[in-house]
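Field reference: sequence -> structure
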Amino acid sequence: MKRVLPFSLLVVTVLISHLACGGGEQPAPSAPEASEPSASTPAPATPAPTAPADRSQMELLETTQAATQTAINIVGRVKNISGRQVSGVTVRADFMDEGGRSIRVEQGNLVTDPLAPDAVSEFRISTPYNANIKRFNVTFAELFGGPLTTRDSRQQ
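Structure field:
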């Protein structure tokens, strides 16, 4: 035997289903239309553009280069300006030719490890002598933290 629901129960069931599926949501009230600013109401000031914040973590203070018949040696000093202790810092020196093409990359470590905030450490890197090496670039990376952005404050 087939059961037949009374019509009012059927309507209530359909309405509940409709509401459960989100069909009964009311649209959000619209915001009142903005009026034109009057002469007595000053327009909001547009802030002046600002320079991007310096997010450097290390500051390269100085480097000195000395060459012998067998090696090119770099001695430098770096300051931790990150505001936190850094550890496992790798110093990477990219030795380049006159046109800026990389000839050789050498890695070393800071003398002081870990390096506290605002502390300074020395580093030393050497590479076999090559007459084509005319310049170098020094970068820093933390063992588990990746590259450390560096501000170059060396005297030019």
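Note: Residues 59-149 form a domain with the Immunoglobulin-like fold (CATH 2.60.40.10).
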